[in-house]
Amino acid sequence: MAEIKVATDATFEELVLKNDKPVIVDFWAAWCGPCKMVAPEMEKIAQKYEGAVDVVKVDVDANPGLSRAFNIMSIPTIAFFQPGQQPMGVVGFRPMEQLESQFGLSQYAKSQKA
User: Fold this and answer.
1) What are the chain's domains?
2) Within the chain, which residues score under 50 in pLDDT?
3) For residue 17, what are the contacts with CB-CB under 8 A and spacing of at least 6?
4) End-to-end C-alpha distance for the chain, whole angstroms
5) How far apart are CA 9 and CA 52, in angstroms?
6) What's the pLDDT tens digit per position in 71-102?
7) I need a labelling partner for 101 at 20 to 30 A (CA). Which of 3, 47, 81, 95 fits?
8) What is the pLDDT of residue 113?
9) What's the pLDDT at 114?
10) What's the pLDDT at 1?
11) Alpha helices, DSSP H only, in 1-114?
12) Selection from 36, 35, 55 nearest residue 44 by Cα
C-alpha cells in the first residue's frame, strides 16, 4: 500500500512546498463526514501515482496555521501543489476520477490501468 504522509504546521514546508514532485494535500478533520468519504479516494490516488505524486493529509484542527495560511474555510479541501506553480484546490468530496481530471494527473501515471 502506498504511503500517505501526514503534514503538520512544522513539516508542511518540507513535505509539500519543497517537494520536487507534485503533491496532493487533503485538508480534513476527524469530525467531518465528507472527509471520511475522501480518504479512500486519496488512498487510490496514492496507490496509482506512487513514486510520481505524493499524497499528504493535514488535520485542520491540529494545524490551524496551515488552515490560515491557505485560507481553508471548508473541508474537505483537496489541494494540488506542483513545483513552481500556484496551488489549485477543490472543496468537498470528489471521486478519484474527478480529481485526476481536475488536476491533470494522467501525465504522471506510470501506466493506464483499465
Assistant:
1) 5-108 (3.40.30.10)
2) 112-114
3) 81
4) 19
5) 24
6) 999 999 999 999 989 999 999 999 999 999 99
7) 3
8) 45
9) 37
10) 66
11) 12, 33-48, 64-69, 96-103
12) 55
In this structure, the number of other CB atoms found within 10 A of the CB of residue 102 comes to 14
Its pTM stands at 0.93
Phi, psi of 23, rounded to the nearest 5 degrees: -135, 130
Distance CA 30, CA 5 (A): 16
Q: For cell 471520511, what's the residue?
A: 36
Contact yes or no for 97/44 (Cβ under 8 A): no
Q: Which residues are catalytic?
A: 32, 35
Please state, in angstroms and as integers, the Cα–Cα distance from residue 51 to each residue in 61, 77, 78, following that order: 29, 23, 19
User: Which distant-in-sequence residues (6+ apart) come within 8 Å of 71 by Cβ?
Assistant: none
Cell of 95: 471521486
